[in-house]
Amino acid sequence: MAKILVTGGAGYIGSVLTPTLLNQGHEVTVLDNFMFRQNSLADCCQYKKFNVVRGDCRDETVLKPLLAKADIIIPLAALVGAPICDQNKIAAETTNFEAIAMLCRLASKRQKILIPITNSGYGIGKKDTVCTEKSPLKPISLYGVTKVKAEKVVLERENSLSFRLATVFGMSPRMRLDLLVNDFVYRAVNDRALVIFEGHFKRNYIHIRDVAHVFIHGIEHFEKMKGKAYNVGLDDANLSKLELAAVIKKHLPKFVYLEAPIGEDPDKRDYVVSNARIAKTGFKPEWSLDRGIEELIKGYTTLKNNQYSNV
Question: By three-state DSSP, how is residue 239 classified?
Fold first, then answer.
């Protein structure tokens, strides 16, 4: 079993990944600034192999001694999403990229790094073209730009790999309602109505528990996977916003939606993604879009406000 450092381990993904790693028997240290005042790791405190540090991933004096004890580093700490990055441009640059560059400088060659980035780096895809890991990265938002730069500096070192995550959905102890599937289902449950902009824009989706599973998969098959980027999404969920709404309506028949020119996607995400490379390593997602929607509907019986978003 490995000693794993997870920065941002109390965030949306980290709050699912951290207990998953602990259940696998790993020793996990989380570094997080708890900026959302979350208590999402409370249940992890029962584990003897769990350690938590309140601090900033950009602070070398905090990071360096934690790195010295780690076999594996999973840098989740980031300002996630175009809106929060646009509101905090300096923090986005220093957290999403500069902290990763520092981490790579401080880490030894023997230490393994598995980093998530966003497949929004593909920007606007070409018509009738599927985005693979060899497709050019053309991020439009500051968020996309910082994550693409972070991936580059990580993959330039030895012993690293990256996961280009599709839009994540599903319940987490540190919930986010501003992710597309989570948002649409929340509105369907609570408002029973939704106005959609840029309804033809397509993107890919992946459940948060499959994100946790892909990190486990990457750790277990690291030697054959290292040095590359991997798209991680559902092959049967390259859907437009209107197609996604139609899937949700199957679960909530009273849900009404329509399209109107009322907004604009800051990431300009419109692409179809191939997940063939990760599939060839033996990884297979366990959570379908329908299963995740059913989970969210149950989850939203307990959540009745919008404090669970990043902006």
Answer: strand
Neighbours of 133 (CB within 10 A): 18
- Among candidates 148, 75, 150, which has minimal Cα distance to 113? 75
CA 75 vs CA 7, 58, 137, 294: distances in Å:
5, 11, 21, 30
Domains of the chain and any CATH numbers: 3-170+205-234+274-285 (3.40.50.720)
For the chain, the farthest-separated pair of C-alpha atoms sits apart, in whole angstroms, at: 56
Backbone angles phi, psi at 292, to 5 degrees: -65, -40
What would the DSSP string read from start to end of 52-70? EEES-TT-HHHHHHHHTT-
pTM of the model: 0.94
pLDDT tens-digit readout, 119-167: 888 877 677 789 999 999 989 899 999 999 999 999 999 899 999 999 9
Q: Which two three-digit tokens encode residue 199?
A: 């309804």
Pairing assessment for the beta strands 238-240 and 167-169 based on DSSP bridges: unpaired
AA letter at 208:
I
SS3 state of residue 205? strand
Assess whether pLDDT exceeds 70 at residue 305: no
- Tell me which residue has tokens 């989570």: 182
Pairing mode, if any, of strands 193-196 and 160-165? unpaired
